[in-house]
Specification:
Layout: H1 3-12, H2 14-30, E1 38-48, H3 62-81, H4 84-96, E2 109-114, E3 119-126, H5 129-150, E4 160-163, E5 168-172, H6 176-203, H7 210-215
Antiparallel strand pairs: 1-3, 1-4, 1-5, 2-3
Amino acid sequence: MELREYARVLGRYLWMIVVLPVVVGIGSWIFRPQPAPQYSAGVRFTIGVNAPPATQVTGYDPILTAYQASEYIRDEFVEVVHSDSFAGDVNAQLARMGVTGITVRRGNISAVVEKQRRLMSLSVTWHNPEQAQQIVDAAVKNLAENNRKYFAQLGSTAATVTIIDQPVVAQVGSSLRDQLDIPIRIALALLAAIALAFILEYLDTSVRDARDAEQLGLRVIAEIPRK
């Protein structure tokens, strides 16, 4: 089939190629789900180990050892925050703070280590901005008080948590998947409409012009043009 034939088929069913994506787009917009607003509370801080007094150690550099221990903590920080144990301890911390009606799961808390700056970021995603603030406060407090539990390599020495920024609560925007949902539906509807146009053309046995008649083996003597 020549390109002109393709254009002829698309032109014949242009109404369907246009209408189907428009209908799908409007329907997807009207009936799209309305997710509840989500809020994120984030805080940046550092975790470090204090060097023991030089009089208590022999055979190694206490400052270097403290620095290496701090590096180990940062490497394990993300896994610790994503654990069920940490989420359970945050719930216990919330209860001690007098906060009720909140049950935190590990998927609600995330963490990132900024390697270039040696800083750590902890964020909480929640449906209520005030509760998000309370959860992130409890998470930081739990990490400061119970880090000996998570970082066994420190032995009996606890790490020091230093807050760099105060927690900031902001509404989370739509995800990339949600933003592309309707455009993808429209694109699929357009492809389906084009495919359907060629299927209908293939199944159509009508004779519309001289070309269709010649394809049936008939000889065309004359053709009355359209006005």
